[in-house]
Design a protein that fits this description.
This protein has 392 residues and is α+β, with helices and mostly antiparallel strands. It is 29% helix and 31% strand. A hairpin with a 2-residue loop joins strand 6 and strand 7 (213-220).
Length: 392
C-alpha cells in the first residue's frame, strides 16, 4: 500500500533547469547599431517566435510589387490543405489571366494547366498570368480572391496591408509594409515548408498544351539569393516602377531560420546585397537554444480505471528558443501535468504542458502526451489490483 501511495504522489510534477536563453522585447531602431540599410523599409524576423531582430520604417505602407504573391501562394496552399483543390486539378486559363503583363509564362486563353504547375510558375518565375489563373480558380474571380487575401491579412494581424490584385502589378491603393510582408512570409514557410521545393529551385520547365500542340517553357528563379547565399531557402522578389525593388529573403543556418525583407531598394543589386547583409547580421548576433528533445519523459500521471496505474508523460515537440549570442542562458522549465486520466486512451493523448520561463516571463511551451495507450480495466484486472494492494 505504501508503494502505491508513493507512486501516486510522485506522479505529478518534475521541475528542472535547461541551458537555454531568449531575447526579450521587439528590437527598436535605436538597438540596431552596426546595421545600416539603404532601402526605404526593412525588417529581419525570426519566424519561430515572430520576433523582430531589426527594423527600419517597418510599418510604412509601400507598393510591394510581386512580393504580393507570397499571399497568393499561402492561399493556394491553404486551399489544398483544406481539400478545396488538389495539386493535380486542371485550371482553365481565362482571357483575363492570359492578358497579364510583366513577369509571365505566356498562358493562352482556354489553356489548361495543373495547379502544381501554375504554383511552380508563381514561386519560381513570378508569373503574373499563373497567379491570376489560380486566383480565379480558387476564388471564382480575381476580385473575390482579393477579398480572401485581405481577410487573411486581417487574421494574421497585417495591419498595414491592402491588396487590390493577386499578382502585385502597380494599382492605386495596393500597399503593404515590410513587417506585414515578414508576417505573411512567416506564415507560409512555417505552415507549408514544402513550398521550399519550388522556392529553392533555380531552373525548371512547364509544358504548354494548346490547340497548336505542346511546347516547353523554361522557368528561371527570379531570386538570386538561392545562388548567392549559403543556406538560402527563398522566398520572393518584386519590382515595378512604383515599388522599385523589393525582396523577402529566407535562409537557414545552424537550426535557425530568418526572414529579411527590404522594400523600395533603388536597384536590384542593392536589394540582394542588403538582404544578404541583414541575414548575416541575424546569424552573427542570434542563435537557437533547444528545450527538451521530442519524447523526453517529464513526469507521470495517475490512471483511473485502467489496466495500469501510471503512465509516463513525454514531450510532444521540441521547443527552440532564439537568444542573443552571449546573453544569459538560464531558463526554467516547468511540467504542468493533469492530476489523472481515465482509461481507455491512446498513445499521444495530451496530459499537460511543459512551460518555459526566462527572467520570470513565459517564453515557450510544448504539449506533454502519454507515452503509450492504456485499455480500461476489466474485472480480472480490478481483482488482481485488490489482491496486490491487500498484500502490499
Amino acid at each position: 500500500m505504501k508503494k502505491y501511495i508513493f507512486l501516486f504522489f510522485t506522479a505529478f510534477f518534475i521541475f528542472f533547469n535547461l541551458s537555454a536563453g531568449v531575447f526579450g522585447e521587439e528590437q527598436t531602431e535605436s538597438q540596431n547599431a552596426g546595421l545600416e540599410v539603404e532601402a526605404k523599409s526593412a525588417v529581419i524576423m525570426e519566424p519561430l517566435t515572430g520576433n523582430i531582430l531589426f527594423q527600419k520604417n517597418a510599418d510604412e505602407m509601400l507598393a510591394p510589387a510581386s512580393v504580393t504573391k507570397i499571399m497568393t501562394l499561402l492561399l493556394i496552399y491553404d486551399a489544398v490543405s483544406d481539400g478545396r483543390i488538389g495539386w493535380d486539378d486542371m485550371v482553365t486559363v481565362s482571357e483575363h489571366a492570359s492578358s497579364m503583363g510583366g513577369s509571365q509564362i505566356f498562358l493562352e486563353p482556354t489553356e489548361k494547366q495543373k495547379v502544381s504547375e501554375l504554383t511552380k510558375a508563381i514561386a519560381i518565375a513570378s508569373a503574373n498570368d499563373a497567379a491570376v489563373a489560380m486566383a480565379e480558380h480558387i476564388g471564382g474571380s480575381e476580385d473575390s480572391f482579393v477579398e480572401m487575401m485581405n481577410k487573411k491579412a486581417k487574421e494574421l494581424g497585417m495591419n498595414n496591408t491592402t491588396f487590390k490584385n493577386a499578382c502585385g502589378l502597380d494599382t492605386d491603393g495596393h500597399m503593404m509594409s515590410a513587417k506585414d510582408i515578414a508576417i505573411m512570409s512567416r506564415e507560409l514557410i512555417t505552415k507549408y515548408p514544402d513550398v521550399k521545393k519550388y522556392t529553392t529551385t533555380w531552373q525548371d520547365t512547364i509544358t504548354h498544351t494548346t490547340r497548336k500542340g505542346d511546347s516547353q517553357f523554361g522557368l528561371t528563379n527570379t531570386n538570386k539569393l538561392i545562388k548567392w547565399y549559403n543556406g538560402a531557402t527563398g522566398l520572393k522578389t518584386g519590382s515595378t516602377g512604383n515599388a522599385m525593388y523589393c525582396l523577402s529573403g529566407t535562409a537557414e543556418r545552424n537550426d535557425m531560420e530568418l526572414i529579411a525583407v527590404v522594400m523600395a531598394a533603388p536597384d536590384p543589386k542593392v536589394r540582394f546585397r542588403e538582404v544578404m547583409k541583414m541575414l548575416d547580421y541575424g546569424f552573427a548576433n542570434y542563435t537557437v537554444i533547444k528545450g527538451n528533445e521530442k519524447n523526453t519523459k517529464v513526469g507521470e500521471v495517475f490512471i483511473y480505471k485502467g489496466k495500469e496505474d501510471i503512465v509516463s508523460g513525454i514531450v510532444k515537440d521540441e521547443v527552440k528558443i532564439v537568444v542573443p549570442k552571449g546573453a544569459s542562458t538560464k531558463i526554467e522549465a516547468k511540467p504542468q501535468l493533469s492530476d489523472g486520466i481515465s482509461a481507455p486512451f491512446d498513445a499521444g493523448t495530451k496530459v499537460g504542458e511543459v512551460v518555459y520561463y526566462y527572467d520570470g516571463k513565459e517564453v515557450g511551451r510544448s504539449d506533454v502526451v502519454t507515452e503509450k495507450g492504456i485499455e480500461k480495466a476489466g474485472l480480472n484486472d480490478i481483482l488482481r489490483k485488490l489482491v496486490f494492494l491487500w498484500f502490499a
